[in-house]
Amino acid sequence: MSSFKQRMDEARGLVKIDLVLRNARLVNVLSGEIHETDIGIHQGNFVGIGTFKLAEKVLDLSGSYVVPGLIDGHVHIESSHLCPEEFCSLLLSHGVTTAVVDPHEIANVFGSKGIRYILDSVDNLPFNTFVALPSCVPATDLETSGARLGAKDLSEFITHPKVIGLGEVMDFQGVIHAKPEMVEKLELPVRFIDGHAPGISPQDLNAYYLAGIHTEHECSTVEEARERLRRGFHVMLREGSAAKNLLDLLPAVTSRNSFQCLLVTDDRHTIDLLQDGSIDHLVRLAIGAGLDPIQVIQMATINAARAIGLPRLGAVAPGYQADFIILNDLDQFDIEEVYWRGVRQSKKGDRPRFQHIPTEELTESVHIGSWSQTKLRVFANNLQDLTTRVQVIGVQEHSLVTSALVRTLPVIDGLVQTDPVQGVAKLAVIERHHETENVGVGFVEGLGLKKGAIASTVAHDSHNLVVVGMNDEEMNLAILNCIEMGGGICLVDGEQVIGKLPLEIAGLMSNQEAELVAKTLGELHEKALILGISKMVDPFMTLAFLSLPVIPKLKLTDLGLVDVENFEIVKTIL
């Protein structure tokens, strides 16, 4: 380590340093301006801006822009279907040098073993991965998850250098009513606690913030964002693959409050990451919508670092870690090169390749027990009826929020049928962790499905096996193939399997390279269109969230159709 005098001389430009960026146009997120300067880098850190004549290497940028490395303040690696090494590699190619990951998904399958896998995978990568420990495993007692983690279980990870926070606290009822198990988690010694409270009342937001939860990514309206900003929350503007809230929330962002806003992806598929990008995509969207580029870049860098508690990241200034992007056009945000700790990691879209750690201990995750197609049947209350009124979950485009609907469906031989005319399909969740043989069956509208079936072991938050289809036979075939793969996604048309993607790691992620996963997913998307799935719906991301407890009232769990507002199991048939 350099002596104090040595560091002073480096910053003053009196001694030789590792690298100088000459003739840069620095996007200075601290002063809110763009100015021409040279930038000094030594031993992975910025030593300053100004004049540095002595350097091992000089990179003449000829007026190119220098931007701090982008930061994703909240993301689930598992939703990309990629192993952590592939995920971090992709993000680096898109200018993201830091991500705060919440291993909530794999923890709900494998508990502490899943968290340890994420930490081990990213340990030696040239990328800043920070972990927010999952606060809700399970997310709700209405489902059966693969594990249960209390404060004591989480505390074993507290001293790990990459663990800095408590992940999204979905149990806001447990917070505001001071449920002891939740209070114990909130009292863990972490830098920040992440929020998740859609539908919470403005008055209850006071208590939620007072509990130490100071970030929130579940805003879907301008008014929700404003209520949180008024109370001091750092509002995360989210643009994922299913929930796309960024453009809707931008009217809430002003020059006076933007310092409280940051950008996050939350859940993003491989195809979107490869084609459009990560946080860089959000930056382009916001600039394209008319926001000042410097303001947007602040939200993608220094704002995120300050909200999360990362004092040496998010800016180009003395003492900050030398993570940065070089680009020629600020409005287009077309990235030329990406550096981490002063070393180039990516050039013009190329990405580094990292070795994957072994995953054999994470491949046995589908335990259905005894299975019969008859478990998919739904009986009418009156077996003689030709039709019956049914509670239906309504899917909304580009949203995780569902509607509670009532539809009249046909009945044949006492069994309630799907209805392609109304666009109503059957939906089932099958417990896959403990062989309880629990099965929940209901109906869903809005996917556009006309025929066939889609099954997946990606089903938030407990990640049981979820399947949607127009008849029991096709649904059954999709289920059996998911079991045979040991987890994954399967599409069925008639008596044929028309596509599948094995997800051998916890039934959530693949060990394959990102390009191959994206190619397979792209083919599955095309085949989903053949089944009638709407182009406005991401079938796999949407299906994954149909068992998620959101507002308003209905969700489907492995225990049945549930009234989320009252936390009671309700009949499928009215």
Topology:
Elements: H1 4-12, E1 17-28, E2 33-42, E3 45-50, E4 55-60, E5 65-68, E6 70-75, H2 84-93, E7 96-101, H3 104-110, H4 112-122, E8 128-133, H5 151-155, E9 163-169, H6 172-176, H7 180-186, E10 192-195, H8 202-210, E11 213-216, H9 222-230, E12 234-238, H10 246-249, E13 261-264, H11 270-275, H12 279-288, H13 293-300, H14 302-308, E14 324-327, E15 335-340, E16 343-347, E17 387-394, E18 403-412, E19 415-416, E20 424-430, E21 439-445, E22 453-456, E23 465-469, H15 472-485, E24 488-493, E25 496-502, H16 514-530, H17 539-545, E26 554-557, E27 560-563, E28 568-569
Parallel strand pairs: 1-4, 1-5, 6-7, 7-8, 8-9, 9-10, 10-11, 11-12, 12-13, 17-21
Antiparallel strand pairs: 1-2, 2-3, 5-14, 14-15, 15-16, 17-18, 18-19, 20-21, 20-23, 22-23, 22-24, 24-25, 26-27, 27-28
Briefly characterize the structure.
With 574 residues, this protein is α/β, with parallel strands linked by helices. The mean pLDDT is 93. The chain contains 17 helices and 28 strands.
Mind explaining what this structure looks like?
It is a single chain. The longest helix is centred in the C-terminal third of the chain and has 17 residues, at 514-530. The protein is built from 17 helices and 28 strands. α3 crosses α4 and α12 (279-288) runs antiparallel to α13 (293-300). It is elongated, with a radius of gyration of 25 Å. Helices cover 25% and strands 28% of the residues. It has a 9-stranded mixed β-sheet with strand order 19-18-17-21-20-23-22-24-25, with helices on both faces. With 574 residues, the chain is an alpha/beta fold.
